[in-house]
Amino acid sequence: MMEPLEDKFITFIRTQQQALYRLAYSYTKNEQDALDVLQDSIQKGWLALERLTKHEQMKSWFYTILVRTAIDFLRKHKRFELIGDDALLQLCEQDTYDNFDLQQALYHLPLQLREVVVLRYFEDLKLEDVAHILAIPLSTAKSRLYKALKLLKIELEMEEN
From CA 44, how far away is CA 38, in angstroms rounded? Predict the structure, then answer.
């Protein structure tokens, strides 16, 4: 017997809640704002569930909703400022990224570059899915990823010296 789509959605949210929160937090840099973005995304996803035609693409479909909701939130609250030391320290305590230097270098990247790296490597999505989620051409996703990795390498090499 097939599981109803609503049940699949609930199971997906429950099993992916940590990753979804991390992704929202990577945009908002604030625990409460990340929770608000996640809650809004879940509500939007629930209301749009009947439009999901390919159930096996639920992850990339929902990540698209989450990323767009986070970007809308940032625009609405004009929160594109750089992360401060206190926020970075709080992030280090909460986040699961193992390498502090990598984490710090990652948050020095511009948002457009950082989101490609986070989705590709920390959320383990295919580059095609990253492009779809961010509503950009695949070639743009590839060039942003290449540029981000190049900048991260430079930043990490500077940290070593």
Answer: 10
Nearest to residue 44, comparing CAs of 15, 24, 27, 22?
A: 24
- Please state whether the predicted TM-score (pTM) of the whole model is above 0.70: no
pLDDT at site 84: 42
* Residue 123 DSSP class: S
> Which residues 6+ apart lie within 8 Å of 105 measured at CB?
151, 152, 155, 156, 159
pLDDT of residue 96: 45
Amino acid residing at 35: L
Q: Are 130 and 141 in contact (CB under 8 A)?
A: yes
Distance CA 94, CA 87 (A): 11
CA–CA gap between residue 96 and residue 81 (Å, rounded): 23
CA distances from 5 to 57, 80, 88, 99 (A): 12, 36, 38, 38
Mean pLDDT by 10 residues, the chain (161 residues): 81 93 87 94 93 86 91 75 44 49 77 87 85 91 92 78 63
**Contact partners, residue 38, CB within 8 Å, separation at least 6:** 17, 20, 21, 24, 66
